[in-house]
Amino acid sequence: MTESHDLGPIGDRVLFEDEHIRVWEMVLEPGERSPLHHHENDYVVVVEGDRVTVEPLEDGDSRSGAKPAEVTPGQSIFLRKGGTEVAVNSGAVRYRDVQVELLDS
User: Fold this and answer.
1) What is the rounded CA–CA span in Å between residue 102 and residue 24?
2) Distance CA 86, CA 38 (A)
3) Distances 63 to 22, 23, 97 between C-alpha atoms, Å
4) Of 51, 72, 82, 88, which has the most beta carbons under 10 Å away?
């Protein structure tokens, strides 16, 4: 990862934390972007909304490998640590996710 990028948190707020997990919430209104952030732990994300685009950081540009995805409310996805990205609400309704970081992984 490039040191020259200022990174933000992976969510808007921590809902719960203990020695095993940290639970984040992120809410993005249509067109809103998250800060550039890095996932240091494996995590499970539960989503709601209709569409989100993930812009991974590649060669210093977070848009070069943009991956739009349809959202199924309540869908749960397991993701591995290591991604540095920006999430963009590319849908017409509010996007919300709850991310459960696995601190023991």
Assistant:
1) 11
2) 9
3) 28, 27, 21
4) 88
Global confidence as pTM? 0.87
The predicted pLDDT at position 1 comes to: 42
Per residue in 4-32, pLDDT tens? Answer: 568 999 999 999 999 999 999 999 999 99
DSSP letter, residue 81: T
**74 neighbors 45 (Cβ within 8 angstroms):** no
Look at residue 66 in the predicted model and tell me its pLDDT. Answer: 86
Report d(CA 17, CA 39) in Å as an integer: 16
Specify the DSSP element, H or E, that contains 25: strand 21-28
**Per-residue three-class SS string for 35-80:** CCEECCCCEEEEEECCEEEEEECECCECCCCCEEEECCCCCEEEEC
* Cα–Cα distances in angstroms (integers) from residue 90 to residues 14, 53, 66, 81, in the given order: 24, 6, 11, 23
For the chain, residues with pLDDT lower than 50 are 1-3
